Amino acid sequence: MDLRQMEYLVALADERHFTRAAELTGISQSGLSAAIRSLEDELGTALFTRTTRRVEPTEAGFALLPYARMMLEQAAGARDAVVKASRAVSGSLSIGAEQCLGLVDVNSLLDRFHRRHPRVETMFTQCGSHDLLGMLRAGELDVAFVATDRHLSTLPHREIGREPLVVVTPPDHPLAARATGSRGAVPWEALDDQDFVDFGAAWGVRTLNESVFAARGSRRRVRCTVNDVHTLLDLVNRGLGIAVVPRHVAAKPQAAALRVLPLADEDVPQWTVSVVSTAWDQADSPAAHLLELLNPLPNAAPAEPVRLPA
Predict the structure, then answer these.
(1) Using an 8 Å Cβ cutoff, are 295 and 23 in contact?
(2) How confident is the model at residue 266 (pLDDT cuts 50, 70, 90)?
(3) Domain spans of the chain?
(4) 154-186 pLDDT, tens per residue?
(5) Residue 295 CB: number of other CB atoms within 10 A?
(6) How far is CA 141 from CA 103, 135, 183, 247, in A?
(7) Does residue 52 carry a pLDDT above 80?
(8) Would you give the distance in Å from CA 121 to the centre of its chain?
(9) Which 3 state secondary structure label does DSSP give 224?
(10) How far is CA 156 from CA 69, 149, 245, 278, in A?
(11) In 10 A of CB 1, how many CB atoms?
(12) Which of 27, 180, 219, 221 is at a distance of 20 to 30 A from 18, taking alpha carbons?
């Protein structure tokens, strides 16, 4: 058993889906499957049951899972201890992120950075992506994790990953019954004149929703505007509207009672998460040491920060 196999095991156990686990770990789906089969052959037992729709850990898989997590935590702790002993970094670091990005665990990243560099004074701000970009341009942030591919202009950034948008409705909403096709997909015209719950204007997904609906000539009424993911899901569950959200939001425990419906479109809009910073080339800065923890980014391409034309 090696650490990469443990990483694949944990990702597959958490995602219960080979494609999503492969995306999360930055490996091909066939490579992930081969690694899991190799681990099962080594241990002489099946670790997952596989169906056409879902992947579930077996009893043996559940037994191994806490040890796999412990191995990964200990390996990360060992690396952090070496860095802490060999490189004393000080100064200040201002970080911003939109809530519930899914594709990157900012809280875990902050915790690991603090353990590596306890002398750095760290400040964290959580707000909408467009506000974060404004703060970064004004010099108020060193690093921002944003959920938009707009308004990045010439700011150096790297894409972390993408997710499709999905529709969430109350379980008894007429739209759920009208979903068509084997995948239960919702046609865009069915969204016309529906009542919606959506995020404030500073959130990246709100901008994406507005542009997507406008491009398709669809009409909608935003009845409730929120600045919290859990409040959005609660309002949808109470029947105050439906919502179009990134796929990982629909997978939250708070959405368990909701219907999750894909959009009937070959080109489903993609919600994009990026890390933006002006400190990519400042090798000794606290921001650069934070960005170092993101290497390699799962799904990130290219390896160097991108500068879009203004």
Answers:
(1) no
(2) low
(3) 3-84, 90-161+272-292, 163-270
(4) 788 888 888 889 999 998 898 887 654 445 688
(5) 9
(6) 21, 6, 43, 28
(7) no
(8) 26
(9) strand
(10) 34, 12, 26, 6
(11) 14
(12) 180
Fold classified for 3-84 = Arc Repressor Mutant, subunit A (1.10.10)
Query: Which tokens hold the place of 155?
Result: 């700011």
d(CA 248, CA 263): 15
Domain 90-161+272-292 fold? D-Maltodextrin-Binding Protein; domain 2 (3.40.190)
Question: In degrees rounded to 5, what are phi and psi of residue 73?
Answer: -65, -40
Report pLDDT for 229. Answer: 94
Q: Which two tokens stand for residue 258?
A: 């909701």
pLDDT class for 119, splitting at 50, 70, 90? confident
For residue 32, give the nearest of 298, 246, 300 by alpha carbon: 298
**Secondary structure of 236-247 in the HEC alphabet?**
HHCCCCEEEEEH
| DSSP-derived secondary structure letter, 173 | -
Q: Where are the alpha helices (DSSP H) in the chain?
A: 3-15, 18-25, 29-43, 59-86, 106-116, 129-137, 174-178, 204-215, 229-237, 247-250, 286-292
Q: Do domains 3-84 and 163-270 have the same CATH topology?
A: no
pTM: 0.68
Paired residues of 272 in beta bridges: 162
Q: Report CA-CA distances (Å) from 191 to 122, 166, 216, 251, 257.
A: 43, 12, 11, 21, 21
Could you tell me the pLDDT band of residue 131, with boundaries at 50, 70 and 90?
Answer: very high
Residue 154 CA to residue 136 CA, distance in Å, equals: 12
Predicted pLDDT at 72: 84
Q: Average the pLDDT over 122-126 and give the result.
A: 93
pLDDT of 197: 96
Q: Which fold has domain 163-270?
A: D-Maltodextrin-Binding Protein; domain 2 (3.40.190)
